[in-house]
């Protein structure tokens, strides 16, 4: 359970846990503040939400990512003499969808990685790493694209080269914390798939030659390779 007062600039939601927001009114226990979220009155019909006037608090049970945002505690000017309000920002640590363990591509192909944000408030910033080092964005082949409202959420590397083989990491970070996911990108030689084919063709050729010799001997039992050698000597 998290508790904050009006002096806080923000607090953190842990999804599933309870959140307590409290207005600090010193000894004015008779004052009952009104709670707003994003400029609208808090939905008190939600069974997860309760207001406790005894300590001027708003409690949200079983929080979700949708409970993030600015909450305002407003005191009626007719009661306290002048309008008083304060805003408490409720944030949530970003969470990104995991990449696959590895990705196999061939030289010349295009790499596309999507850093999908599952949650995060405020909007997280995205940083890309290559083998734990900042990605070299001066390479003309590399570009970062926006995903809806999240800048740099998509990494694209055109015309892959062998040197692009590495572990790529997406880091999403905001005021509440950070989250990351990584994948190993393997880059194969574009002729690599040709060598097994050549090997198979060679094996087939040898097999055909052996079958030819076998059939030759079966059809002509008197045929002997040594006879061929003797005729050649003459």
Automatic annotation (TrEMBL):
Q: Which PROSITE patterns match?
A: IG_LIKE
Alphabetized InterPro entries for the sequence = Cell_Adh-Cytoskel_Orgn, Ig-like_dom, Ig-like_dom_sf, Ig-like_fold, Ig_I-set, Ig_sub, Ig_sub2
From the record, what ranges are coiled-coil? none
Q: Which SMART domains does the record cross-reference, listed alphabetically?
A: IG (SM00409), IGc2 (SM00408)
Q: Tell me yes or no: is Signal among this UniProt entry's keywords.
A: yes
Q: Which residues form the Ig-like domain?
A: 1-91, 94-188
Where does the sequence pass through the membrane?
193-214
Alphabetically sorted, this entry's keywords are:
Disulfide bond, Immunoglobulin domain, Membrane, Signal, Transmembrane, Transmembrane helix
Protein's recorded name: NPTN
Q: Sorted alphabetically, which Gene3D superfamilies does this protein's record hold?
A: Immunoglobulins
Q: Which PANTHER family match?
A: CONTACTIN 5 (PTHR45080), IG-LIKE DOMAIN-CONTAINING PROTEIN (PTHR45080:SF8)
